[in-house]
Amino acid sequence: MIRILAFLFGCLAGLPAFAHAPSATSDHEVVVINSPPPAVVQALGQRFGHILRDPRSGDVRVEADGEDRAWLAAQRFRFAVDDEATQSLQRSLLPLQAQRAIPGYACYRTVEETQQTVDSLVDNYPLLASAIDIGDSWRRTRNGAQGYDLVVLKLTNSTTGGTKPKMFVMSSVHAREYTPAELMTRYAEELLAGYGVDPDATWLLDHNEFHFLLQANPDGRKRAEAGNSWRKNENLDYCGSGTRPGIDLNRNFPVFWNYNNGGSSTSACSETYRGPGAASEPETQAVIEYVRSIFPDTRPGNPEDPSIPADPDTQGLFLDIHSYSQLVLWPWGHSTAPSGNADALATLGMRMAWFNGYEPQQAVGLYPTRGTTDDFAYGEMGVPSYTIELGVAFFENCTTFQNNTAPKNLQALRYAARTLHAPYRLPAGPDAYDLSVDADTVVAGEPVRLTARVDDSRYRNQQQSTPAPTTARPHHVIAGARYYIDQLPWESGAVGQPMLPGDGHFDGTSEQVWVDIDTTALAPGRHLVFVQGHDAGGEYGPPAAVFIEIKEPAPAQAVLVGRITDRVTGDGIDGARVQAGDEIVISEDGDYSFLIEPGSMSVTVSAEGYLSVPARTVTLAPEETVNLDFPLVPTSDVIFADGFHTD
Questions:
Q1: Catalytic annotation, pick one of 29, 209, 281, 389
Q2: Residue 546 and residue 579 in one domain
């Protein structure tokens, strides 16, 4: 039920910064503001630090305490309380009673449980996983016995060398956002468990590096786990006497930190307080130093010149995972000015949004922000940078997370990972998926049929994008597909072989493709087969892979057959033991046969009640059949020299 609290809607002008008086946890409610205009949406974003806007109705949803609601009423907003969402929110804010998950939210690991998972993965996958301490939380810098290390979980096959493209992902930098850290922890587990089992996970770990800062704000997260709706870090030097101390870490990064168009607050008690200076916080400093260490600068010049493009061949991705709002965002957040790579950023953003169903848009589209992580990473390094806002609540219930948010966003992450070699280029080409072979294991020389789907239409078109990309995202006709064995398309010496359209013609934006692979020259063992499609626009998409196993053909065999008979009666002897080399068979009604490797070997025969016969040597050529009979003398017919007959 929705309770109407205030009815008048007025225009908003000149928003002052408001300090926040203490308020009880139970005072937090989820309120809905009816279809405010864009200028008001931006002001709400600055006030609350986070809003959810329904793209259809235009309604805005925020979490508000008593002071926030008084402010809304004073501004003459028409708003209402969502009782059901409020009850869920207040249940989530119950204090944490034990270190085993979060009460009511067993699907989310605590800070300690996340670190335990990291330790376990490093122990269980020593060649694929390592943990890197990149710095300290604010509390640890003040008291080494408290607070937390900031730990990056690095995933890659350490036995494969060379410079590899990198994906850096930070999650839950805003403390009350439970879903991001859990999503990325599950993606790490999926990658590692899939190595050697899932072909895409295998090649991704062989050829790329994944750097996951799972808990980017552990001090603040512990505050949230204890029953606080906590957003910022725990720097008590600012607003220490209020209920909202700390710095908004996602307003503390250096690029456009001091850009004076709103998007952050200079008030220490504001939820979007940017800090006393750019990169003032130890958490921010740790991320900056680490990101600079793993990504080269491919966007030289002034980081705050919005029009400078990064090198289109830039490798790697920077992702900052948040909740909530169901958005895929890319730079810039400070203004509507497009970046120098606006079209390429929009293309990958719209590709990821196809998988999770979110709204793709430039970060400024909802409201301006400044000093954010993605503007920093793109502005300084030129690496394609995105913020993904998961789900519909900070404390999303486990059913929704596990059945909807997690599976859809894991798909988006899997796609993004396949573009790391050239994220400004590959998303413009068609996607390859649903790879299959008609036999997982084949004898060398036997053909194996490979099929796949190549599709250029898997974009989610922008609905609320501000500004729109400078060019539309056309769905090109598929021009072809190629397969590569044990080499990615861009590796030196890689030669792709053409695949055929399933319907006989490349004339659609989505095509089934196939080919019969000649395996004659393939060495025994497992092989990765990659499929890459290209479209009529000349763009090549990210590859996908499938395994095939090649086994050696059976060596040419020889056949040894014969008959074991009673020399006196001529009857076949049942149960005679025939040994040829190391192989043994038992005769049936006198007949025996061997399918045996060629060569020279000794053949012996024995049967109960019959004299043994001397071994006979036989030489068998490949595919030759040799007949070798043995008449045996029964012991009852042996006459001894003293004239006595024995039986």
A1: 389
A2: no
